[in-house]
Amino acid sequence: MNQRAFTAILEREGHAYVALCPELDVVSQGSTVEESLANLREAVELFLETASPEEVAERLHSDIFVTRFEVSHG
Fold it and tell me: pTM, whole model, 2 decimals?
């Protein structure tokens, strides 16, 4: 069984959390951070199990950078 690390970006939306895996454009959600991350992990695993190698290669973004920046405004 292969293992690979992916990025998870979580955002609170109302009373839920939305989780995005930007490398594969896979999204899930949950009522807590932990549940959202677990659901995203499951969604990515299911995608990798069912998608063809061509689809995975087409959707895979290998250079993902997550950072914060500041702006000045009004």
Answer: 0.88
Q: 7-23: per-residue pLDDT in tens?
A: 999 999 999 999 999 99
Domain ranges of the chain: 1-74
How far apart (Å, rounded) are the C-alpha atoms in residues 65 and 32? Answer: 24
Residue 15 — φ and ψ, nearest 5°?
-100, 10
Q: Which residue has the tokens 């063809």?
A: 52
Strands 16-21 and 26-30: antiparallel
C-alpha–C-alpha distance, residues 42 and 36, integer Å: 10
Does the pLDDT of residue 1 top 90, yes or no? no
Highest CATH level, class, for 1-74: alpha beta
Give the position of tokens 């690390």: 5
β-pairing, 26-30 vs 9-13, is unpaired
